[in-house]
Design goal:
With about 450 residues, the chain is of the alpha+beta class. Helices cover about 30% and strands about 25% of the residues. Bound molecules: uridine-diphosphate-N-acetylglucosamine (UD1). Uridine-diphosphate-N-acetylglucosamine (UD1) binds next to helix 1, helix 5 and helix 6.
Length: about 450
C-alpha cells in the first residue's frame, strides 16, 4: 500500500521492521487456502442457488475477486469473518477489464463458469507477472475443444458458445502441461457440458481436489480428481452447497520453514499433512524433527544441513515454497542446489538475499547456496508474494534488524502475517517509511531507528 505523507512530496510506504536473531515458539492457526478460495468463488457462478463458503481467508486477492464478481451481478454477503454467501441468480454479461485481470490473474478462471451459464464471456487477456510470462493457451485450446469460439481482440478474450443448445460438448482434452489454472478452468467449463469430458495430463494439486469436491456437492459428476486423468460427466444444472476451504499448505509450509530457519519449535494446525509431504521430507533431510498428530504438524530444529530441491507439479516440491526454502538454506552447513523448473522468473529473492550476506550463485534458474555463518539486516523490497516471505525469514535469521518493503505482496497471500509471527514470539512491527529509493542507507542510524521503534 502506498500512502501519501503529510507534505505530499514524499510518498511513504508500508514496511516491516524486523528484529533479527529471532526464536519462535508456540502454535498458530493456519488459514484457508488462498488458491482454493479463489477458484471456489469462481465455481460459485455455476449455480443460481446460494453457495456458502467457510474458512475463506481475509486477503487482498480474495477481496479483489469478490469485487470482480459483484461487478457482474453476483451478490456476496460476508456473513462473518471467513464465512461468505455467494448468490449468482442475477449474473449478467460484462467485460472483466484489464485492471481487474492484471491485478488478479485468477479472475480469468471465471471464463469457464461464465461460458456455461451465459453462453458468452469477455475477459481481458492476462499478461505476465513478476514471476513469469504465464501463458493461457492451454485454457483457450481446451475451451475450443469443448466447442467454444474464442477470439482475441484488443487485449480481450471473447468466448462464445455457438450451438443452438448453448451448451459446451464433452470431449477428450490432453493438456500440453499440467497447468493448475487450465485444469481448473476446463473442469468448471465441463461440468455443465453435454456428455463426458476427460482431461488427461491434468494437474493434481490439492486445490483442484477441493474444487472437484465442492462441485460434486453441487451435483457435478467428477471422478478421479487429484489424478492426472479426470473424468467429468456433464449434468444439466448444479445446486447450492456449503463448503469449507482446505487449509493453506503454502502458508503452513512458510511457517514451518521459518521455524526451521530460526532453530525453533512450533506447531501449525489445522493442516492436511499429505498436502505437505514433499516439504516435510526435505525439512527432515535438512535436520528438522517433524511430528504429525491428526491435523497438526510440529517441527523442532537444532541444526540445518544443506539439501537440494527441484520444484515440480504436485506431489513434487511446490514452486510457491522455493523462495522460503532458499532462505532456510542460507545458514545451512554445506552447499544446497535449488532448481526452479515451473516459472522462468521466480528467483527475484536471490539478489536481495545476497545483499544480506548470503552466498548464492544463480545460473539458469539454478541457485547454488553455500551456507554462511552470519546474515546482516538490510532495508529491502520484495517484488512478489513468496520472495517477500523469503526475505522476512532471512530477516528473522539475521544478526541485526531489517526493514522490509513490498508488504502489498504479503497481504495478497498471508492472512494476519505479522500477528501470527508475533504470537510465535517474533519481534516485528508494521509502519510507514520513505520510498526505498529516497533513503541513503545508514546502518547505525537504521539500527537505532528500528530498535527505538520496538520500544515505542
Ligand atoms: C497456480 C497457482 C500459483 C502456483 C502455480 C503452480 C493459483 C491462483 N495460482 O498458478 O500460486 O505457483 O499454480 O503451482 O492457483 N503454462 C503454460 N501454458 C498455459 C498455462 C500454464 O505453458 O496455458 C505453464 C506456465 O507457464 C508455468 C506452468 O505451466 O510454467 C505452471 O503454470 P500453472 O500451473 O498454470 O500456474 P497457475 O495456474 O497460473
Amino acid at each position: 500500500m502506498i500512502c501519501e505523507s503529510e507534505n505530499k512530496l514524499n510518498p511513504k510506504f508500508e514496511s516491516l521492521k524486523i528484529k533479527g536473531r529471532c526464536s519462535l515458539q508456540g502454535r498458530i492457526k493456519i488459514s484457508g487456502a488462498k488458491n482454493s478460495a479463489l477458484v471456489l468463488l469462481a465455481a460459485s457462478l455455476l449455480t443460481k442457488d446460494t453457495v456458502y463458503l467457510t474458512n475463506v481467508p481475509d486477503l487482498s486477492d480474495i477481496r479483489k475477486m469478490k469485487n470482480i464478481l459483484k461487478s457482474i451481478g453476483v451478490k456476496i454477503k460476508d456473513n462473518d469473518k471467513e464465512k461468505v454467501l455467494i448468490n449468482s441468480e442475477n449474473l449478467h454479461f460484462g467485460n472483466i477489464a484489464h485492471n481487474s485481470v492484471n491485478e488478479l490473474r485468477a479472475s480469468f478462471f471465471c471464463i469457464g463458469p461464465l461460458l456455461s451459464m451465459l453462453g458468452k464471456a469477455s475477459l481481458a487477456l492476462p499478461g505476465g507477472c513478476n514471476i513469469g510470462k504465464r501463458p493461457i493457451e492451454e485454457h483457450l485450446k481446451g475451451l475450443k475443444q469443448l466447442g467454444a469460439t474464442i477470439e482475441e481482440k484488443d487485449g480481450f478474450v471473447n468466448a462464445r458458445i455457438n450451438s443452438n443448445k448453448r451448451r459446451l460438448k464433452g470431449t477428450h482434452i490432453k493438456l500440453g502441461c499440467p497447468s493448475v489454472g487450465a485444469t481448473e478452468t476446463l473442469i468448471m467449463a465441463a461440468v455443465l457440458a453435454e456428455g463426458q469430458t476427460i482431461i488427461s495430463n491434468a494437474a493434481r494439486e490439492p486445490e483442484i481436489q477441493d474444487l472437484c469436491e465442492m462441485l460434486n456437492k453441487m451435483g457435478a459428476k467428477i471422478t478421479r480428481a487429484g489424478t492426472s486423468k479426470v473424468y467429468i460427466e456433464g449434468v444439466n444444472y448444479l445446486n447450492g452447497c456449503s463448503h469449507e476451504v482446505i487449509p493453506d499448505r503454502i502458508e503452513a509450509g512458510t511457517f514451518l520453514i521459518a521455524a526451521a530457519a530460526t532453530l525453533s519449535c512450533i506447531t501449525v494446525s489445522p493442516v492436511i499433512p499429505s498436502h505437505l509431504k514433499s516439504l516435510l521430507q526435505k525439512l527432515k533431510e535438512s535436520g528438522s524433527d517433524i511430528s504429525i498428530r491428526d491435523d497438526a504438524i510440529s517441527i523442532k530444529t537444532k541444526t540445518i544441513k544443506g539439501v537440494n530441491i527441484e520444484t515440480a507439479p504436485f506431489p513434487g516440491f511446490p514452486t510457491d515454497l522455493q523462495a522460503p526454502f532458499t532462505a532456510l538454506m542460507l545458514k545451512a552447513t554445506g552447499k544446497s542446489i535449488i532448481k526452479e523448473t515451473i516459472f522462468e522468473n521466480r528467483m527475484n529473492h536471490i539478489e536481495l538475499l545476497n545483499k544480506m550476506g548470503a552466498s548464492i550463485k544463480l545460473e539458469n534458474n539454478i541457485a547454488t547456496v553455500s551456507g554462511v555463518k552470519k546474515l546482516y539486516g538490510r532495508h529491502l523490497k520484495g517484488s512478489d508474494l513468496r520472495s517477500t516471505a523469503a526475505i522476512v525469514i532471512a530477516a528473522l535469521m539475521a544478526d541485526n534488524p531489517s526493514l522490509v518493503e513490498g508488504l502489498e505482496h504479503l497481504d495478497r497471500g498471508y492472512e494476519d502475517f505479522e500477528f501470527k509471527f508475533k504470537k510465535l514470539g517474533a519481534n516485528l512491527k508494521r509502519g510507514l517509511t520513505e520510498n526505498i529509493s529516497d533513503i541513503s542507507y545508514n546502518q547505525d542510524f537504521f539500527i537505532n531507528d528500528v530498535q527505538n521503534s520496538y520500544a515505542a
